[in-house]
Design a protein that fits this description.
It comes from Astatotilapia calliptera. Belongs to the calbindin family. The N and C termini lie far apart (43 Å). It contains twelve helices and two strands; from the N terminus they run αααααααβααβααα. By secondary structure, it is mostly helical. The protein is 56% helix and 2% strand. Strands 1-2 form a two-stranded antiparallel sheet. The longest helix is centred in the C-terminal third of the chain and has 23 residues. α2 packs parallel to α9 and α7 packs across α12.
C-alpha cells in the first residue's frame, strides 16, 4: 500500500480539476520550493510520458535513453516560457489538461510592473500589504466574469483555496507581494534591458520616463512601488545567474 500511495496522481485524466492540479504539484515539487526542477523535473516528464503512453500516446522511453533527453529538451522548449530550466505553476497549468475555468487563473498576465502594482492596490482593499482570501476571491471572480465564464460559488471557493495553498508559501492564509507576483507574472521587467551596462544619462532618463507614467516629472508612490519591484527582481536574477556559474 505504501508504494501505491506514492504513485503520481491524476496524470491519466482527460481533465484535471483545481484540487487535482494541487495534488500533482505537491507530488512533484517534493522540496516545496515552488518549482519542478532537477530530478523532480525528470521524474515528472517520465511519469507524464508513461501516462500518455497508457492513453495511447507514444512514450520516448527510459531517462537514460538519448531519445528521452531529446524529447525532454523539446518539451521544455515548448512549455518553459521564461527559459529558466524549470517548471513553475503557471507553466504546469498549460501542460496538463486543466479545468478550463481554473486554467484561466494562470492566463492573466500584466504588461508592466506599474500595471502589476495597480492590480495589487485594486484588490488589497484594506491596504494591509497582503491579498487575503476574500480579496483573492474577488480577483478570481473578476477574471472569470471578464472572460464571460459561468461558475458557481462552490467552484469559486475551491479555486480560491487551491490558489492560496499553492502560492501561500509561508502558510499565513494570504498572499504577499512576491507571492502574488507568481500568480500574476509580469511580461517584461524593463530594468533587465540595462543589466550589466554602465548607465548613460539617456538610459537613466529612459528609465525615469518609463516609471513616470503620468508624466508629471515625479515618481509617485505607486510608480515607486513598480520601480522597487523591478529592482528586486533584477537583483534576484543577477544573483541566481552568478550562483549558477
Amino acid at each position: 500500500m505504501a508504494n501505491k500511495a506514492q504513485q503520481p496522481p491524476h496524470l491519466h485524466l482527460a481533465e484535471v480539476t483545481a484540487s487535482q492540479f494541487l495534488d500533482i504539484w505537491k507530488h512533484f515539487d517534493s522540496d516545496g520550493n515552488g518549482y519542478i526542477e532537477g530530478k523532480e523535473l525528470e521524474n515528472f516528464f517520465k511519469e507524464l510520458e508513461m501516462a500518455r503512453r497508457g492513453a495511447g500516446v507514444v512514450s520516448s522511453g527510459d531517462p537514460t535513453n538519448p531519445t528521452f533527453r531529446e524529447k525532454m529538451k523539446e518539451f521544455m522548449q515548448k512549455f518553459d516560457k521564461n527559459k529558466d530550466g524549470r517548471i513553475e505553476m503557471s507553466e504546469l497549468a498549460q501542460i496538463l489538461p486543466t479545468e478550463e475555468n481554473f486554467l484561466l487563473c494562470f492566463r492573466q498576465f500584466v504588461s508592466s510592473s506599474a500595471e502589476f502594482m495597480a492590480a495589487w492596490r485594486r484588490y488589497d482593499t484594506d491596504r494591509s500589504g497582503y491579498i487575503e482570501a476574500n480579496e483573492l476571491k474577488g480577483f478570481l471572480s473578476d477574471l472569470l466574469e471578464k472572460a464571460n465564464r459561468h461558475y458557481d460559488e462552490q467552484k469559486l471557493q475551491e479555486y480560491t483555496q487551491t490558489i492560496l495553498k499553492m502560492f501561500d508559501l509561508n502558510g499565513d492564509g494570504k498572499l504577499g507581494l512576491s507571492e502574488m507576483a507568481r500568480l500574476l507574472p509580469v511580461q517584461e521587467n524593463f530594468l533587465l534591458k540595462f543589466q550589466g551596462v554602465k548607465m548613460t544619462s539617456e538610459q537613466f532618463n529612459a528609465i525615469f520616463t518609463y516609471y513616470d507614467k503620468d508624466g508629471n516629472g515625479y515618481i509617485d508612490e505607486q510608480e515607486l512601488d513598480a520601480l522597487l519591484r523591478d529592482l528586486y527582481q533584477t537583483n534576484k536574477k543577477v544573483r541566481r545567474d552568478w550562483e549558477s556559474r
